[in-house]
Amino acid sequence: MALDKIKRRDFLKIMGWGGAGATLAGCDMPTTVTLEEGKEEVVSYLVPEEYVIPGIGVWYASTCQQCAAGCGVHGRVREGRVLKLEGNPESAVNSGALCQMGQSALQTHYNPDRIQQPLLRSGGALKKVSWDEALAQLQQKAGGRSAWVTGTISGHQAVLLDAYVKATQARHYPVEVVGSPVWNRVCQDMLGDANPRLRIDEADLIVSFGADFLGTWNSPVHFSRQYARFRQGPKRGMLIQIEPAMTLTGANADLWLAIRPGTEGVFALGVANVLVDRYQTSIAGLPADAQKAIRLYTPDHVKDITGVSVDQLMKVAELLKKRGNSLVLAGSTAEGHSYGYQSVASIMLLNILLGNVGKTLQANVHAPAQLAPRVGNTANLVAFAEAAAAGNIDVAFFYGSNPLYLAPQSLGLKGKLDKVGFKVALSSFMDETTAQADLVLPLASALEDWGSHVGAYQNGELQVSIQQPLMEKLYPETRGFGDVMLGLLKQRQVREFALYEDYYAYLRNAVAAMPAALNKAGGNAWNNALQHGVVALNAGSGALRPRAVSLPQPEMAAGDDGYPYHLVPSARLGLWDGRHANIPWLQEAPDQITKVVWDSWVELHPTTAAKLGVARGDTVKIASKAGAIEAKVYVYKGIHPDAIGVPLGQGHDEYGRYAKGRGVNPLSILNDTKDQTTGELALHATRVQLSRTAGKPGDKLVLMGGSESQLGRKMVATVKAEVFARSEGDA
Amino acid sequence: MSLQNILQDWSKYRKGNEEGGFHDYEHLWGLAIDLNKCIGCNACSVACYAENNLAVVGKDKFAKHQEMHWLRVERYWDEPDLGEQAVSDYQSHGASFLPMMCQQCMAATCEPVCPVAATYHTPDGLNAQVYNRCIGSRYCSNNCPYRLRYFNFYSYYEDSWPAPLNMQLNPDLTVRDKGVMEKCTFCVQRIRAAKDVAKHEHRELQDGEFTTACAQTCPTQAIVFGDLLSLHTAGKAESTLSTLWRDQQVELGRTEQHKQNPDKRGYRVLEGLNTDPKVMYLERVREV
Lengths: 731, 288
Description:
The complex is a heterodimer of chains A (731) and B (288).
Chain A: H1 8-26, H2 35-42, E1 58-63, E2 72-78, E3 81-87, H3 100-103, H4 105-109, E4 119-122, E5 125-128, H5 131-141, E6 146-150, H6 155-167, E7 171-174, H7 181-191, E8 197-198, E9 205-209, H8 220-231, E10 238-243, E11 255-258, H9 264-279, H10 288-296, H11 299-306, H12 310-322, E12 326-330, H13 332-335, H14 340-353, E13 361-362, H15 379-389, E14 395-399, H16 403-406, H17 413-417, E15 422-427, H18 432-435, E16 439-442, E17 451-453, E18 463-467, H19 481-491, H20 503-512, H21 525-532, E19 534-536, E20 565-570, H22 584-588, E21 602-604, H23 606-612, E22 619-623, E23 628-635, E24 643-647, E25 687-693, E26 718-720, H24 721-728
Parallel strand pairs in A: 6-7, 6-14, 9-10, 9-12, 10-11, 14-15, 15-16, 20-24, 21-23
Antiparallel strand pairs in A: 1-2, 2-3, 4-5, 4-16, 8-13, 17-18, 18-19, 20-25, 22-23, 22-25
Helix pairs in contact in A: 1-2, 6-19, 7-14, 9-10, 9-11, 9-12, 9-14
Chain B: H1 3-18, E1 29-34, H2 43-52, H3 59-63, E2 72-76, E3 96-100, E4 119-121, E5 127-129, H4 139-143, E6 150-151, H5 157-160, E7 181-182, H6 188-200, H7 213-217, E8 223-227, H8 240-247, E9 266-267, E10 279-282, E11 284-286
Parallel strand pairs in B: 1-10
Antiparallel strand pairs in B: 1-8, 2-3, 4-5, 6-7, 9-10
């Protein structure tokens, strides 16, 4: 190399070494310190990577792990620290946007309560051990029958987990409480696709029975993006939300209808009745009992059951018939009953009757089976509890799920876990489940780890989203999930994986080895994947095949005088199922609906509150047959008088300084009713009684300040849709 | 700043505003927020916490209204324009959400009351807050009709960012200490960075080459950030934001808009107070 070819940077490197040497010589460092040993002390980034410029942030693509939607993110890295996350515009899931949970992934990563070392229970307490000791323990214990409890897991982590589960003849129980398992089953049965593509953007009218698609349903950021298009001119879509307690989606509805909990399916059949009766919709092709059910639910009958007026029912039916493309959705409030499947099927029937299949409900693309998400649900939680109780589990592994917090007390999971010989938690935090573990393997945070993910909901474009570390590990004794799995696989001498030194090597190889027919981008697959954060895959989609299912008459539980109210445990875009309760930003972020911070609350309708003689801030006790909780009251008209809403997320006994001992967990007092068809826990089927109590002295309900009323001023001005149609529409 | 100066400047400044006078501005950063699209999800607010080193104060201080959210999402239950909530049993049109951040008023009521000129109007049309000049009189906060100024009653450094949370702090701006007023800056550090890049590349700032943290993250793209100066400067390429304002027939320098088309949804919150805010909202829409 000729002298004139020496690059400027190379020159500076050489000079830098010399300069550092001079610095060392100049101070009183022991002479035994070599330059190599001492360089960190001298100047960090003495020889930075080519692209590292002090003071300038560099953005890297990765994948958000705050929920299972799988949004792509860009992380801003400066001087080796990740400082800010933004949505990845190339991700088909979120197209550059991010919700507040995604923004807060930073505080999961930098959380002061992370576990930093492997812990082993000895003499009743968890004590620090080395990884070698931990893995040796595991090898010793892991011979028996084992079970894995995880959250929703996909991509190459799922491949490794499957391999291990197969090698150990274990069972895998993916568990999630926030999800749409019944909806997915109904879609599978009635449309032939468990996750049809929803064209919210193409709809002129959406009727949603409690599907909180802007907040907690499947892929909220993606649906929010679609919603923006749905709402814009020239033809602004109309949203009708029918639910017992207001969700974020309900708060954005043109028409919000409070319905008696558990009667959503009846309302849908009532709509079908009107469609048949008044608008000559044919139901000749439906199974006989479905036809019978539709005929049975006349508007007056429906009014008596649901509490929604005949006028409103007529209006919904008329709009569905006359307002162009419609889309009817069902969410957790419709699912969460012993007859949840029938309710959701009745609601789905409207999509078939209205001809929405193929228009606003389309066939979706699906990931190859190895990479496809193993979507969590509560039936698996029940199954795991039963297996544990039967003494069928010697070793239980927990990863990405906190079943001891999620499981209602009525499942008795805590006692049943005692029968599990050895419990291993792969976790970053000391949550309720981890605290009961015998062995704790500390995981690197999502922003320190490698991975690949496929969102549970795809939108017609199939992408595998790549997760790459955005910084060095904060704690050297933590390991990535993939690395731990590879280590375990090597313990079992599974040959396919013996080659790979670490998960990075495996993932890189796996992405690079994707067949060209699958990987759309081609070229240098790995570099493309890292650069873009997503690997677009070729995937075909078939067509939906609508098929009505039989609708036997649901047996609704008779009212119970002792327990007059329905408990609505509502998930929130924020603390989610409780996994984000340790994030200070999200604790301090006011709830979207009530604006309460740092606490739980009980939503009551003004008439219910008047009956009890309570006002905002008073404490009430909510008792079910399974247990009781106490929280402070928030009174508003966004809830049915027969329902009382308590948000999920708080009430942790463990989980660090921000979460522990704050508020209550409504899941804990649910009874163990299950949906009869799918076996899912009926999360909305618990009846409760209410009584006023004194509450803890000095404990206040804290809300974001300001007035709930505009006091006649033009703060949020509202115009009627006809005005919008004149100025921005086609009217 | 002598009293005479203040009075003199004050009348000049007030008058200049009424005459629609825009003097020597380099930019006029502004926003448009479409309440037809805003879903009240709060992503903007948390993005602001991440970008701007906002302190988490905890429940007790929050109860005393000492929270530091530069961008908050207000939620109202009544709908005075629809006028029927009073008789309804239910919240039948949902909620009314309003993201509120500093409105960067052109006739800001916070500015003239500052005894030390810690808050002043920049050539970018922003209400700047000079932290190291602020003495904590809180006059500005008293005078803000939008309640968008936040005072550091305490030093939050240790409580709000116990290690290693402090590693997330954005080094492009400070962590404010006890006794200092702070508020939304329209992500002035992003403005500064973009200007520097443009200067290095010997070119003008381009519309859309950067945006604020709130606008960037918004899942419904309800927030649009940009420069309003092109509305008032002949021959300057019009920004997306200016187009929006012009299309909505909302003008700076007015206490009341005189729209040719009254159906246009643009309005400014409390503009009758003659604060001349640079945030335009587009009215919420409901089928009734």
